[in-house]
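Ticket closed. Logging final result for Haloacid dehalogenase-like hydrolase.
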Amino acid sequence: MDNSRPFEQNIIAMVWDFDKTLISGYMQDPLFKRYAIDAKQFWKEVNALPAYYAKFGIQINRDTSYLNHILTYVKAGKLKGLSNKILRECGKELGFYPGLPEFFPKVKKLIEENPVYQNAGIRLEHYVVSTGFAETIRGSIIAPYLDGIFGCEFIEAPAQPGYLDNSFDPQEGEISQVAIALDNTSKTRYLFEINKGSNKFPDTIDVNSQIDKNNRRIPFENMIYIADGPSDVPAFSILNQHGGATYAIYPAKDRIAMRQVDSLRRDHRIQMYGEADYREDSMTWMWLSEQVSHIADNLVQKQREIIRQSASRPPEHLNS
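Final structure:
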């Protein structure tokens, strides 16, 4: 390794959206079922919020307004006692698409059980970047297979006025504030965190730090982004612009959803798409595993070229 470079850049990252990419619906469904909330009514209200507030001259973020509406439901008593612990518990009730969570360790084995890749020190990491609840993802069956989870977060006990001068011991309780809100554009921030390594070295690297591309932990060309549709265009664009791989998921036998992702392909927003089936030998398994192998082969070739260039030719016998 070049001592002047902080990272060997031999890591591959698969970055996943969550809702309708890994599960067929929305992760809030178990929560609404638990509290007997009409999910259709909740989302209908959320979709009408921008127009409602506009009448009062107030603009809101369409992608994250549902978080405040969740808090409104808590305050109104419809989600009474909702805590981060309950959000985690709801994650256990999520059902995943066929082939999950087995896909995650299986695709890692492609790297771990290949002696050529192992000799080159290549690794594969999985990340989820979602506009949903990070705690619910942490409580799901896929959490043990993930190297990082980025999602929306809530605070239960906010720091009170004067907390700097007095001891503050936040207790578990009802959620009352939004801590982190991801929308479809800000999701790209977390691609840069993974790219630069600030997610692994937060005390050393800031996501806004100027870092030469050769000094970043995971180059974009080593990334694969998997999501379900138009809302992920900003993230798809980042990967497409910087040599990464992009793949869209649609539910099996859903012709309308297939047409939607096909339009993304025709517009060069994504490189390929397939059904939400992660079992071995499915189209999705084959394409994604091929991309992983393709990136790994490129990394091996790059490493060999660097070694070849750095090694001098041995002395040779001179002919008289």
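The first strand starts at residue 11 and ends at 16. No further action required.
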